[in-house]
Design a protein that fits this description.
The chain is of the alpha+beta class. The chain is built from 2 helices and 5 strands.
Length: 114
């Protein structure tokens, strides 16, 4: 997608602090971290959000979740625990309209989900 920030990052047009990359997904550090570990996991293919994913994206969606787990292992937060979050739509504070997961950890999280 032409004006999508995350598409530009995935294409290498905008630099990022990469944690993991393969042909389908990219994981990079959030520029405004909300926890000591805050990594974004995105598909390289543009999908606006969970609401926009089609059946043809099923393998990619599974790949995103597996990558989130792999990132947690790479970042050393599996034993202490981590959170995977995805904001969908304006009320959920999705600021970039490109499906992405936040992998958060490195400290105890608040007990409330919202």
């Amino acid at each position: 997608m032409e004006n999508c920030l995350f598409c530009k990052i995935a294409a290498g047009q905008i630099p990022s602090s990469k944690v993991y990359e393969d042909e389908q997904v990219l994981a990079f550090r959030d520029i405004a971290p909300q926890a000591p570990v805050h990594v974004l996991v995105i598909p390289k293919k543009h999908v606006s959000g969970w609401y926009d994913a089609q059946e043809e994206n099923d393998a990619l969606l599974a790949k995103l979740m597996r990558t989130a787990s792999a990132v947690a292992k790479m970042e050393g937060i599996v034993d202490s625990g981590f959170r995977v979050v995805s904001n969908c739509g304006a009320d959920a504070q999705q600021t970039v309209k490109h499906l992405h997961l936040h992998v958060l950890g490195g400290r105890a999280m608040a007990g409330e989900m919202a």
